[in-house]
Amino acid sequence: MQEQETRLLMLVDDEPAQCRLVSAIASRAGWRTVFARDAETAIAMLGTQDGMMLDAIILDQWVPGADSASLISELKSRRATLPILLMTSIGSNEAAIDAMRAGASDYIIKPVAPERLIAALSMAADKSKKLGELHPLTEKITQPLAFEEIIGSAPALRTALAIAAKAARSRASIFIEGEHGVGKEVVADAIEAASPRAKLPYLKVNCGAISSNLLDSALFGHEKDAFAGAFDRRIGIFQQAEGGTVFLDEVDLLPPETQIRLVRLLTQGEISPLGAAHSYRIDVRILSASNASLANKLADGQFREDLYYRLNVVQLTIPPLRERTSDIPALARHFLGRMASQPGLRSLGITDEALAMLRGYNWPGNVRQLQSVLFRAAVLCERDALTPEEFPQISAAVGVPGNGGSGGAGTNDGIGVTLYENDGNMRPLEEIEADVIRLAIGHYRGRMTEVARRLGIGRSTLYRKLADLGISDAA
Fold this sequence. Notes:
Elements: E1 7-12, H1 16-28, E2 31-36, H2 39-45, H3 49-52, E3 56-60, H4 68-78, E4 84-88, H5 93-102, E5 106-109, H6 114-125, H7 155-168, E6 174-177, H8 184-194, E7 202-206, H9 212-220, E8 221-222, E9 234-235, H10 237-240, E10 245-249, H11 256-268, E11 270-271, E12 280-281, E13 285-290, H12 294-299, H13 305-311, E14 314-317, H14 328-339, E15 349-350, H15 352-359, H16 366-380, E16 385-386, H17 392-398, H18 429-443, H19 448-455, H20 459-469
Parallel strand pairs: 1-2, 1-3, 3-4, 4-5, 6-13, 6-14, 7-10, 10-13, 15-16
Antiparallel strand pairs: 8-9, 11-12
Helix pairs in contact: 1-6, 4-5, 7-8, 11-13, 14-16
């Protein structure tokens, strides 16, 4: 097996506990960490031997000695190509936007989730791929959506949502399968919101973000002195969610001991906290999700068969974005509309050329990656609309900037009429109207009565417009 390459990380933070946590997580992925307690030390460290070998920098939002955006600008002025990640608190979108405008590659919400940090570091340091705008800015715009608000017309998605809406009203456990970033949590939130338990507790657990030796305690709780370091009694997540719902993400990563405990909960409705002499009866509904195929895990002996069938009473499969590229224009406009309400951002359009180009990309990170790419483009855009120029890495990956490639959009996706000039400004209304009429004439094969009816105007009005705009009825 190939030996893992060691990379060097500088962590700018003055909180010892957080420094220990971040460096421990980073070490799992082969990173060695050096520390700077304040802005002055961080800048000085760039000139040291370690500083010359850095692969990435992580800095806390509240770094002593400077505001984070100013420090990022200073660090980027000295080392322009060095990836910088910001650690920020929930709800600090404005600080994150300022940091990205100053040159940050990504930001991470505290408390830091191990798999999120490792993924961000991995992408930041992958110099073989120019992914400057593809970092998974996952913690953005988290308002839950109802089923009818979930964007997408692809048959596979609509089928999954129809099943989810029907199953939401039952007590059945629901398992959601799909690649990373397809929107499994969005669907889980919609299920919970449509269920009879909607007003009761709803707790979420990422099973891959908690170490296996702590996961049992987090889920089921423990009694005082149940194990070394258990100084107080802890109420587990399942008890906290009594009467409500628990969403277990990355359920395929549950360790064997936890799987056994979960089977008991699902079969008997009972849990036994670590160190407890008795069990508790609880009523909780479980939604679960996985990026990997649970069926494959079952076949490989990595997942219990009895647990598999109890979690998988209803199965939903969310298709990847590359299989529903026709949804990209609607998704893009939806995300841009929601981003416009965020502090520091404004309302932006997106050109037809940019949408066609986005459709031509493969989207390995799915809907979450699309949202991240749009967020970064919106932060940096100085025009009134996003053009292919705002997506340089996507352009390079697709091939020719503005070319939709194999995923190019057709008129059925609403991209048949260009609304924007190449500089991002709107085209004159007269030109847009002329294009719409030409498109309608071609679509209805010159049947002018049908063209007029579909455009909602009379035949005489249509012929007058043809004359005024200089359009032949042969289009």
